């Protein structure tokens, strides 16, 4: 199946180069997330439950790399796409957070787990697709009236090119440092609790 999809992508490149490249990148992305078990759900869930922050730190580092990539494109003259955000982002983030933890899979996680043969993630994927479709259908009616009342924020415009990039990296560094401190505190408390249990057992 893998060889067939790669061959299909290569053949498609002759007639539709963008579609063929998208197919090949999709295959590469799928292999990457499946082999590395990249999942936003496990990244945030493990951080609070087990104290492991490896995946969360990897996501922050990935955002740092993508930020400099996007910044370079903007400096070359590519027009940035600035989306409106407000309380809807906080409410949607909370709903998404609860949803992915309860369902056990996020945008990436449910896809590779479903293909691995975990049938219950087929239902997670179905719910994900239906929810995304409904959101896309009603988005303009819900968000557009609110978006017209507020100005868009562009850090590169407000703080200058270098200032916007520095603020972005400062916030990413703050998030990375907070995860490091949380991991250290989590395992220190766990070690103390284990010592108490051992002392009580003796």
Automatic annotation (TrEMBL):
Keyword Transmembrane helix on entry: yes
Pfam families xref list: Sulf_transp (PF04143)
N-terminal signal peptide: none
Transmembrane segments: 20-44, 56-74, 89-112, 119-139, 159-182
Keywords: Membrane, Transmembrane, Transmembrane helix
Keyword ATP-binding: no
Protein name per UniProt: Inner membrane protein
Species annotation: Shewanella glacialipiscicola
């Amino acid at each position: 199946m893998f060889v067939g999809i790669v061959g299909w992508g290569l053949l498609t490149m002759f007639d539709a180069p963008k579609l063929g490249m998208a197919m090949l990148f999709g295959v590469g992305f799928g292999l990457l997330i499946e082999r590395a078990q990249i999942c936003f759900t496990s990244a945030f869930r493990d951080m609070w439950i087990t104290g492991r922050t490896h995946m969360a730190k990897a996501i922050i580092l990935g955002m740092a790399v993508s930020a400099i990539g996007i910044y370079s494109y903007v400096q070359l003259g590519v027009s940035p796409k600035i989306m409106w955000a407000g309380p809807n982002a906080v409410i949607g983030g909370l709903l998404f957070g609860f949803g992915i933890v309860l369902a056990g899979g996020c945008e990436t996680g449910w896809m590779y787990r479903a293909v691995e043969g975990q049938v219950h993630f087929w239902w997670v994927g179905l719910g994900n697709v239906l929810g995304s479709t409904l959101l896309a259908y009603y988005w303009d009616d819900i968000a557009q009236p609110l978006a017209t009342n507020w100005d868009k924020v562009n850090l590169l415009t407000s703080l200058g090119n270098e200032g916007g990039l520095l603020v972005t990296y400062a916030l990413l560094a703050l998030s990375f440092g907070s995860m490091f401190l949380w991991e250290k505190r989590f395992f220190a408390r766990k070690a103390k609790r284990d010592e108490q249990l051992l002392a009580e057992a003796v």
